[in-house]
Structure formats: C-alpha cells, structure tokens
UniProtKB/TrEMBL annotation:
<dbReference type="GO" id="GO:0030515">
    <property type="term" value="F:snoRNA binding"/>
</dbReference>
<dbReference type="InterPro" id="IPR056907">
    <property type="entry name" value="UTP6_C"/>
</dbReference>
<dbReference type="GO" id="GO:0000462">
    <property type="term" value="P:maturation of SSU-rRNA from tricistronic rRNA transcript (SSU-rRNA, 5.8S rRNA, LSU-rRNA)"/>
</dbReference>
<dbReference type="InterPro" id="IPR011990">
    <property type="entry name" value="TPR-like_helical_dom_sf"/>
</dbReference>
<protein>
    <recommendedName>
        <fullName>U3 small nucleolar RNA-associated protein 6 homolog C-terminal domain-containing protein</fullName>
    </recommendedName>
</protein>
<comment type="similarity">
    <text>Belongs to the UTP6 family.</text>
</comment>
<dbReference type="GO" id="GO:0032040">
    <property type="term" value="C:small-subunit processome"/>
</dbReference>
<dbReference type="GO" id="GO:0034388">
    <property type="term" value="C:Pwp2p-containing subcomplex of 90S preribosome"/>
</dbReference>
<feature type="domain" description="U3 small nucleolar RNA-associated protein 6 homolog C-terminal">
    <location>
        <begin position="185"/>
        <end position="455"/>
    </location>
</feature>
<dbReference type="InterPro" id="IPR003107">
    <property type="entry name" value="HAT"/>
</dbReference>
<dbReference type="InterPro" id="IPR013949">
    <property type="entry name" value="Utp6"/>
</dbReference>
<dbReference type="Pfam" id="PF24892">
    <property type="entry name" value="UTP6_C"/>
</dbReference>
Length: 475
C-alpha cells in the first residue's frame, strides 16, 4: 500500500520520507505481500533519495539474503517432494546470494569505514549459506581498512569465537582454562601486530580495553587470572611509555595499582598522568583522590598545582574536593581560609557555588550565629545565587524559635537580586507570611502587588496561576 500511495499527487514527496519509512515499506512488501521484487524496487528508490544511508544498505543487504534463504528452502521442499523444478525459475545466482553480494559491493563503495563493513559481515553471519561471502567481506575488510584500529580490534576478538575443544575433551576445568588462555594469547598477538603499523591512541585504547575486559571476567583458574593481570598491567605500561594512554585508561590503571597495594607506583603514574593531561580536571581529580585515599601529605600542594594549569571555569570540582579534604583533615581556621580563597575565584559559577558551600559549612560547624555572620559578609558581594539566600532562609527556619523578622530580611534581600525573574521566591514569601507564627497575612496583598510590578512575561502568568492555587488551598 505504501509504495502505491507514493504515486498519488497529493502525497508527500518521496525525497521527504525518512529512511525508516522506506525500510518499513520494503519490509511490508517482503513479509506481508511476499514480493521480493517490490521490496527490491523500494530499496533502490530509497537509495536514490538517501544514497549515504548505512541503514538502508544494511536492510537491503539483509532482504536479499532473506530472499535467497527463502528460495533455497522452497527449492529444498520441492526436491523432497520430487517435483519438477524446471518451471519454477530458481536462479543459481539468487540461491547463492549473488544479489546480496552486488548490494554489498555497492554499499562498501559508497559508505566508508570499518564499522559499517563489519556490520554487513554480522548480517551475513546470520545465514548459513554465506560462507564464501563472509570470506570475501573479511578479506575486503583487511584490504581496505588495514589502518583502521576497529579492523584490528575486530580481527583480534574473532579469535575468541574460534571453535573450542569439544566438550567431551574438557577433561577438567584446567583444560578449559588453558584453551581460553591460548585464545587470549592469539588475540594479544594480533593486537601487538596491529600496534607495529597502527601506532595511534585509538589503537592502544582498544587494546587496553580488551585486556581490561578479560581481566574483569571471573575465573577460578589462578594461572589464567594472573596471566590476565600481567597482561593488562603490561598493556597499560606500554601505552604509557608510548605516550598513547588515554585519560580514562590512566584512571583505571591508577585504581588497579592502588587495589594491588602498589601505592608508590600509583603515585608515580598519577604524577605522569597530570603531566601528560595538564589541563584535565578529571586527571588532577583522580590524582588528588588517590593521594587522599593513601593519606599522603601532599594533597594540598597537588591541588594548588592543578589550579595553575586547569581553566578557572572548569576548576569547581577541584575546589569542592579541596574543601572536603580540608574539612576532614585540617582545623576550622585553615578550612575557613580556604573557603575565603574559593569565594573570590574570578569565575562567577565557581564563586556562587563556593559561597553556598561556605554558608552551609559555617552553620554545620559553628552554628547559627556564625552562619548569619557569613551571610552578612557575603549577601552584597556579587556574584551571588538565589540558592545562597534560600539556604539562609532554611537555616533560619530550622531554628527552634525562627524569627519572621529575620526571614523577611532574607526574602527582601533575595528579591532585590532575583525578584524580576523568580516567581517562586515571591510565592514562598507570601506562604511564609501566611504560615509563620509571627507572620502577617495582611502583608500578602502588598507582596502580590510588588511581584506583579517586577515580574515579566511568562513569569507573571506562572505567578498568577500559583497564587490562585495558594489562595484556594491547593498549593
């Protein structure tokens, strides 16, 4: 139905149809109308309008293989019934998947890349009559994409899929482990061959990822576990020496070294990692967290060194880490000095968050009076956030005898900064006057009037709708 409707003058232009619709139409022709010819025509039309679509090529390739499989089964049934095949028109080229091969050849000439190539091989593997086609695809992959790391990764992992010994030959778990170890050795040999010609960070990353995957797999065989352990540490060390280890893999390596109790090596690698990735917040954070876990004394100097290299706008995680460390390890005086440094960082986003943290810390460690002192020292020092004021409001409300006079002060100061953009702040202020023991409901009218004057656009509508719900007791 879909393909006929394309010819109606009132319908959408075929070029405007998505690849998903073309594929859906072709599948309908193939599966519901049992017409491979119509499905083929739809795929060919789809490729006119979407010539660079990997998905269309993949599904077209799959369809031709399905058609070949269907005809092979039909022919087999006819042969079993000892019927005459001469009039049925079964083509040897179709039965052998030749049309699928034509689609494959066209696809790899149009769509480049090893991953797409492998996707066609994966489709071919679903059909048991495609052994020759699979060999051709595999040979083409190695010929056309010899410098693509994905090709080598795929070829190496193929060794794991090689048929194992028959189950009857597994005399013991030890024998099974030895067979698996031999497979992994072959994988490793392919990766090492790859690294001789494809010396890129991507190739090293795929190799290390493979080693990590195998290391993390459970096994009861101590020899296999030790072999995997040696392999992953060796791969990381080689990648590091080649200056090809990624940030992510450095993090994994440091974690493994700490778990193994190789603390001095972990410290050494952490330092090397931050030299390689000087501007990486994540790398400095990993190094600092490792030093904290090992209770080393040079945590603060390392983070201070990080601030020299990391962009100020990216430094928030390091400030958070540093104050958390200081809260646990240093005196309140030292920690407060650190907070005072953090709140004057030139980046507004960092300064705002650190002011919020400073206020929380002051209340948590030294009580309400000190929190109010910090608030009074900061509420007019921009940049400042609405959340900073809300935290002070919450602190006040947590007191055994909270004072409405203080709450009004905090709300008023917050509204001077955010009253034109925060309908929620006005609503909370009104709710406070209505619910607090010392509140004055008669003030709500004036607060409402001020809100209507300050808010604009959608914020006014939001405020009015919520205020109505508040008046009717639904908020």
């Amino acid at each position: 139905m879909f393909c006929y409707r394309l010819n109606e003058p009132t319908d959408v232009s075929p070029s405007a149809l998505s690849t998903a619709l073309w594929i859906m139409a072709a599948k309908w022709e193939m599966e519901d109308r049992l017409s491979a010819e119509s499905a083929r025509h739809i795929f060919l039309r789809a490729l006119r309008f979407h010539p660079q679509s990997p998905k269309v090529y993949q599904e077209y390739f799959r369809m031709e293989l399905m058609n070949a499989e269907k005809q092979r089964k039909e022919k087999e049934e006819i042969e079993k019934a000892k019927m005459d095949l001469s009039a049925d028109g079964y083509s040897d080229s179709i039965l052998g998947g030749e049309l699928a091969r034509v689609v494959y050849k066209s696809a790899i000439q149009t769509i480049k890349g090893a991953e797409f190539h492998v996707s066609l091989l994966s489709i071919a593997k679903m059909f048991d009559f495609t052994e020759d086609l699979q060999k051709e695809i595999l040979n083409d992959l190695q010929t056309f994409h010899a410098q693509d790391p994905f090709t080598w990764d795929f070829m190496a992992r193929q060794e794991l899929a090689v048929d194992s010994l028959p189950s009857s030959e597994y005399i013991s778990k030890q024998t099974k482990a030895q067979d698996l170890a031999r497979k992994e050795e072959r994988c490793n040999a392919i990766y090492e061959t790859a690294l001789e010609s494809v010396q890129t960070e991507s190739m090293w990353s795929l190799y290390v990822s493979f080693c990590l995957e195998r290391y993390k797999r459970k096994t009861n065989c101590k020899e296999l576990k030790q072999k995997r352990h040696n392999l992953v540490l060796g791969a990381m060390r080689k990648a590091h020496e080649a200056n090809m280890l990624s940030e992510e893999k450095y993090t994994e390596w440091i974690s493994q070294l700490v778990d193994l109790g190789q603390n001095d090596v972990a410290v050494e690698i952490g330092e090397a990692a931050t030299k390689r990735y000087k501007e990486s917040v994540r790398m400095w954070q990993t190094r600092a967290e490792m030093l904290m876990a090992l209770e080393r004394e040079d945590v603060t100097p390392v983070i201070e060194e990080a601030f020299k290299h990391v962009k100020t706008k990216d430094s928030l995680p390091l400030w958070m880490l540093m104050v958390e460390w200081s809260e646990k390890s240093n005196t309140d005086v030292t920690t407060e000095t650190l907070y005072k440094k953090a709140i004057i960082v030139p980046d507004p986003a960092v300064a705002r968050v650190m002011k919020e943290r400073y206020l929380e810390w002051a209340y948590r460690t030294q009580g309400y009076k000190n929190a109010r002192k910090v608030f009074n020292s900061l509420h007019e020092r921009r940049p400042i956030s609405e959340e900073f004021f809300r935290k002070m409001i919450l602190i006040e409300k947590q007191q055994e005898q909270s004072k409405m006079q203080n709450l009004r002060e905090y709300y008023e100061r917050a509204l001077r900064e955010f009253g034109s953009t925060s309908p929620g702040l006005w609503l909370d202020y009104i709710r406070e006057e209505l619910s607090h023991a010392e509140g004055k409901p008669q003030n709500c009218g004036a607060i409402h009037w001020r809100a209507m004057k300050m808010l604009q656009g959608d914020d006014v509508e939001h405020f009015v709708s919520k205020y109505t719900l508040l008046q009717t007791g639904h908020l």
